[in-house]
Amino acid sequence: MKDSSSTYQPPKAADRFLRWFCREELLEEVKGDLFEYYLLERKTKSEWRAGISYWFHVLHFLRPFALKRKIQDSNFNIMYKSYFKYAWRNMQKHRTNTLMNLLSLGVGMACFIFIFIYIKGELSYDKFHNDSDRIHRVVIDLFESDGGILPDATTPPALAIALQRELPEIASSTRVFPKWGRKFLIGANEDQQYFEEELIQTDSSFFDVFSFPFIHGEPKTALDAPDKMVLTRSMALKYFGRENVLGETLTIYGSNNQVKRISAVVEDVSEFSHFTFDFLTRLNFNNIDNNWGWWNYYTYVKVNQDTDMRALGGKLLGFYESARPDQERYAPIYTQAITDIHLKSNLKWELSVNGNMDNIYIFGALGVFVLLISCINYLNLTIADSLKRLKEIGVRKVFGAHKKSLISQFLIEALLTIIFAIVIGGVFAEALFRNMGDVLGRNVSMLQVENLQVFLLIGLTGVVFGILAGLYPALHMSSFKVASAVKGIVSKSGRSAKGLRKTLLVIQFSISTIMIVGTLVVFEQLKYVQNSDLGFESEQVLIIENSRRISNQETFKAELERIPAISRASVADGIIGGLNWTMTVGTPNGVLMNYVVTDPDFIDAMGFELLEGRNFDKERPTDAQGGNLIVNKKALSDLGLTMEDVGKPVPMFSNGDSIINGTVLGVIEDFHFTDFKSEIKPFAFVYRTNTKDYSYIKLNSTNIGQTLTQIEEAWNVASNGAPFEYYFLDETYASLHVQEEKLSNILLYLTFLAVFIAFMGMFAIANMTIKDRLKEIAVRKVLGASVTGVSGMITTKFLALVLVANIIALPLSYYLMSEWLSGFAYRTDLGPLIFTLALGSTLLVAWITVGYQSVRAALINPIRNLRQD
Amino acid sequence: MKGTQLGEFEELVLLVVGVLYPDAYGYGIRQEIMKESRRNVTIGAVHSALSRLQDKGFVKSEFAEATHERGGRRKRLFQITASGKRALETNHQLRNSLFDRISDLALKGLNFEGSF
């Protein structure tokens, strides 16, 4: 026996491992048992196999009962556990405060998350293309009548071809020809046809520049033949009920039907794209490759790697001059990075309503503001609370708490609150996203992967911020002297804490006031825009699309006018305030004239007042030819004409050397047809007898429902099966100010929340102040003070703070809002009313929040607060 | 009364502690269990059960003298306590009384085909 025990030794590593994890008091017996086992094993097995078995049994001691109680036993852990316990008890003890803290922090957090994710979306436009940094749009501005420049997104079709040919930096270029208000009747067969809007005509090089993700088909061959067509997944599903529809055909119905072969299916266009499409086909116009006269194509290029865009920009003008030797003046030609288009480009004829960088800044600032207000609230409440916990701190110090441990205790309390607040904020933000999808214009959820990442990131930042925010109270409270702390004497630092509290309250209310003024001004401006006289009668004008499908529009109009509720019907080739064309009129100095082709009834139907001259006349066939115009006053003066010239032939177009005369038949008052940011521009109406795109119907009845049914009946008779799609002209005008509408909506919500949080903070602070002073109030009352006197004493202090905040905020907001308003050519006045309103409302609410509490405190029977000492 | 229930394996260990008295220690108990029940038990499992039994007050233990075959390490010898004995008795009675109440018919049922 002696031999075996000394010769056989179990694996040393296993023993070491056992000693590392196993509890000391168990070690001896365990090792003994294992050793016995090992000896037995060794008798029958090789050393190697016995070793394995030994290890196996050692590892089986990894059970809770055998593990060292490292975690439970350390002083460190016991203390931290108790910190959490105290934090939790404290939160429960001051329920109102905790609730306010969590609510205001949570709401602030939610606003911040909401705005962060919204802005992140806005900033990510068009970044999904491969090499999006190399994709640019080339645009050429237009000259306006007064020599000014009209930034314009459209270019002639020859540009893309010439750029690719002349400039080596351009890797590929493509033209985009959008719908321009047209609708396309598309069908897989005669029975299943739909009117489609989102059809873009383009070049075969479309996918060389853009990279929309393919589901079926190849980018290289997608558009390499004129009869090929690309469509999106949802269109494939709509027409064929499946995704893989390669080789199927769709027909675009028209005067001559075009049969298209489907060559590729792509994913639905991302909402983060500045243009969208459902169908792509090849351009099929003749002679456009050398055409420099039509301004209705968009030119996109992809440049070579490492191209110096500034140098390329310098070359563009030279290129443009050599490409168009016939021009006298050259409007600026430049490139725009595709990723900048959504936020920074604000040209005429953008492909979709773009965002606005200013709004992004405003929203960003608001998000930070609201978060700031709620953090200040938190800081304020914590500081106020800390002054009440002096005794606790003193006792802790007496029992030997280090400064360090006090700091960590308060930090843990801060952290706990912040984590709760972040969770609440996440839930609130989700609720916001659910309810404000229509304001944002897209569906967002916190549960989307990318947003979850953002949430975690913000949460993490929140925690870091929470530690920083908790640091002040923590340092502050741990620095009290033991003796004074136990006695509850508020030292000098206590007074400085109160000073800080006041400063923070003032900052909060300044921000709130600025936001109130901002909201009021934005709403005023919107109201101004909506209530302004547009220069004609835009109410109750119904527009029907697809009117081109009506073969005899005169009969249709006559049919409509037989309905009593319709006072006038007309047709036109554009939408006032939505879609019009431009041409250069006048010679030698051309005026960039906006125009719409109409019939003679248009002027009457829309209530334009003729200041001079006459309307178009059906009986005079010459009215429908050449340069016979009805213009607005601005156009008349820009052309250099006066009322005297109306009706007389004036030089209007130059064609090489010959000058063609035209006549201004009539002059109408200036009217708005763009948003209120730009001045009124020259506008002309032209009379032609051809078939036009839109029917305009002026209603004179309030019974819209019945009238619509009657109109639809007439439409169905005349329209050859085209769908009855209509809207009111007002809607077009409303859509001109979508961005402001969005701004005002979000501003309203945020301001409400910010003010809510600020006043919650004030409520809590007032609550604490009054509790601190209950005895003082009682003594005052015993000595004969009145309820009004006592409540006035407390309320005045808070009102003074709000007043100071207003004094800071009002001039600042005046400056900010005049800056914002200066972006509008037609704007509301910054009257004193708005500022009075902001001042009054903040004072009133402060008075109510504090006044109510102070009166309640003053009404308490003094005995209740005095009998204890 | 939480924690005073006797688990199946615990009961087995407790019984063996009684059987091996006065020389019941971890490894010996394991060998006995493996011999009697022919199930493979790790030493750790036995120690764990013993520690639980001790926490519940069903066994008590003390160190024996150091012996040579364990490399000079002492054994911890286990002994059933009064409450341990009571727990065993209760379990025993419960089983017996329940077993007695099973009717013959039910026991015959065990012969049914496909019952397992």
Task: Report on this structure.
- The complex is a heterodimer of chains A (869) and B (116).
- Chain A has 869 residues and is of the alpha+beta class.
- Chain A has four domains: 2-68; 142-331, no CATH class; 357-529 and 738-866, no CATH class; 541-735, no CATH class.
- Chain A contains 29 helices and 25 strands.
- In chain A, strands 1, 4, 5, 6, 7, 8, 9, 10, 11, 12, 13 and 14 form a twelve-stranded mixed beta sheet that branches. In chain A, strands 17, 18, 19, 20, 21, 22 and 23 form a seven-stranded mixed beta sheet that branches. Chain A has a four-stranded antiparallel beta sheet with strand order 16-24-15-25.
- In chain A, a hairpin with a 4-residue loop joins strand 10 (249-253) and strand 11 (258-266).
- In chain A, helix 7 (95-123) packs antiparallel against helix 13, helix 7 packs across helix 17 (449-478) and helix 15 (403-435) packs antiparallel against helix 17.
- Residues 1-5 of chain A have low confidence and may be disordered.
- By secondary structure, chain B is an alpha+beta fold.
- Chain B has one domain (8-109): Arc Repressor Mutant, subunit A.
- Helix content of chain B is 55%, strand content 13%.
- Chain B has five helices and two strands, in the order αααββαα.
- Chain B has helices spanning 8-20, 26-37, 43-56, 82-101, 104-108, and strands spanning 59-66, 74-80.
- A two-stranded antiparallel ribbon of chain B has the order 1-2.
- In chain B, strand 1 (59-66) and strand 2 form a beta hairpin.
- The model of chain B has no long low-confidence stretch (mean pLDDT 83).
- Chains A and B meet through helix 3 and helix 4 of A and helix 2, helix 3 and strand 2 of B.
